# Entry
Amino acid sequence: MLLDLREKVRSSKPIKYTLITLICIPFALVGIGSYFAGGEADPAATVDGVEISPYQLDAAMNQQRQQFGSQFPDAAIRQLALEQLVTTQVMSSAAEKHKFAIGDVTLAREIRRAPDLQVDGKFSPEAYQEYLQTQGLTASEFEQSLRQDAALNQFSQGVIGTSFILPQESAKKKALLAQTRTVDILRFDNAKAQETIEVAEEDVQAYFDENAENYQFPERVKLQYITLDHDELAAEIDISDSDAETYYNENLARYITPARREASHILLSVDDRNDDAAVESKVQELNELKQRIADGEDFAALAEEFSDDAGSAEKGGSLGLISAGAMVPEFEEAVNALSSSGEISDPVVTDFGVHLIKLDTITAETTIAFEEAKDAAIEALRKEGADLEYSSLRELLSDEMFANTDALDAAADATGLEIQTSDWIDITSDDPWLGAPQALQAAFSDDVLNNGDNSDLIELSGTRSLGLRVLEQEPQRPKALDDVREEIVATLKSSSASEQLDELLKTAVEGLKEGKSVEDLAADESLATATVGEVLTRQASVIDAPIVESVFALAKPSDDAKQIADAISANGDRIAVLLNAVETPEPEIEEVAPNDGRLGNTEFSALLQSLRGKAKISFDESLAGPEL
# Structure
């Protein structure tokens, strides 16, 4: 999945620069000035003549690791950090060019306001000096960093915070988004095409001979490993009935279901609770309603007619279940005072007004007997015991594996956990323990694979940990033809079908341009199907989203200019789309919502993309790694 994500990011500049923008904005605001202090080593990158040193890259990588943990490999972290530094330098150059800056007075005020530099709410010179020492900065370096951060903040917020859209533009945009397009679709079926293709054995052999170096079994290892599983520890803990009953009695509240009340009300609001005359008037009105209910009128009908609580009035005043603490104390106390279904309270005054409350249903408090709760009590005690044992063994296992890196024996002896041995595994393993991404990453790391060390303790989850070491390793080895025959046959079928369908698509497009219909073209070819008069919205799913986008990018058709889109769908089908009509609703001008930052972020992302495109950027390939 990470590889797929990486490929999508690599192939889409808008995604790439949007990602970098979203990361760079908070990055710029939390102190990037110190990353541009220079260095002696060869630069990791150069931006318009400004060097970014490997030391700056290391610092940025550390910051990324703190944010993302170990979920991404070092290469990805390095590349993200480097792209971030480059983009930030581009921003810094633009901010300097346009003279974004803060003055000495503002700088001094910001320093004095910094919480880390205050004691008891006041600026402390001693705290300031201690902070500088902790960060390894001089006062001038720290102040320069703040100036740079402030300049970047002004630069970014100058775009993000001031973006706007006119009502006419907003209305036009909404109309365009609601536009529909009527099309005819001609589809050539890739799966059906492959079914008609026969692959000769000599073609399979020839393809294998030509591409044999591409067919390799991945590197694999045999491992020794120790597992620590919270659930297994819990299952081994023996809990007696006596212990369970003691736990039950000590935690009886857990097994009591309190009484449940459902209620309805009629609310008459009062502008000022302290206005005694107004309150008394509402009380009198509710007493009159209470009398009408006593005389036989329906509470729900009166609530719908008189209650000022619109949300419950339409439901006959029903408030549903009254949970403890959900209502104001006066209301809750009145509900709890009602003891039978249908009982109605006297008027109750709260900050919301005056209420007449009816108890709809009441379910008495119940207590689960010990025999019913015994299993749950036993599981709770097992979990408590396993929590303590897991924590203790986890720490001990980690310490012993670190102290004795050349074997797992000491860790096994100290913890009483069993050393297990795996069969051959590679990076495709689906073993529930060793096939986890964290375990595979550790097993094939340099220290474990090549240096023969124990891994660090690997946390697969909050309740499962693992330690391992490599017993045997085997490099990549070639596959035989029988190992890949089906794969090669599928490849050759796909290739042959693609050639056939590409030619059919080309002919179909030419036919559409000449005025032929999709029905006629489909009738001439068994692999084709036609759909006539399909109305597409921008969210249509009858064809792939990228093809829908290409259809909406076409100009409006005319008698003299047919508009045709052709593409390959995700499943390999070839598709030709003839655009017949475009329908756009009339724009409805409405008040535009205030700037919430989304438009500004989009505009700032586009600006950064433009600035990066104009900048002269070079990378040290050995440090930069593959492009994002």
In short: The first helix runs from residue 2 to 10.
